[in-house]
Amino acid sequence: MLVERRKERKRGRKLKHFFDMSQPVYHNCPGWPTYKMTTVTYEAIYTNDLFTAERIDMNAHTGTHVDAPFHFFPYGETVDEIEVEKWQGEAVLVDLRGKVEAKQGIMPSDVGKYDELIQKDTIVLFNTGWGRKRKNWDKEYGNDWPFITGELAAYLVEKQVRGCGIDTLSAGGWYEGTGRPCHEELLSHGVWILEELLFADELMKHEECYLTAYPIKLAGFSGAPVRAVAVVEDL
Asked: Taking the model in full, what pTM does it have?
């Protein structure tokens, strides 16, 4: 009977495809300009110890990571306080490649075609094309990325989204007056933020996916690294 039930379940399944949306973390990898660089050292090496063990020194907001409300609000929820089921859900893939420029603020009008897809409890993922620039780590990636404006953040809050993500170093901008508005608007309403994503071209053939973005359970932290994965049922 068990074998038959398994066969029946398999017949009803659609083929799923998985896309890793995470940027790699490594020694001296890109990070926030004012933070200490990420360092990787070895506490054990196979040639000496017959096993290998690494030590990593990094800011929690490095690589693909989430921001929890505590990041901007001293009494906000920390990463470990957010219910685990909130870190997954139906996601809308907003394609802004070739439509936004360096240092440009993304406005609600830039995502108008996705308005019907952006519903309560969805996750909105912005592909600006900047994720591909990370390997160069020049001024364009490290300072001049496009960003979510306070106006767009307010639109997402009004839509009652669960979370939002972007493929830039931060959801907010680097320059004065551009970094805080979106963080404060989103995080004050319990909308978590996912930063430094990487979008596969094949994934962008879709407008929607299912996202999982579970952070490391760092107690009392304002952010944490994640392995973000998008799932679609057909290509």
From this structure: 0.93
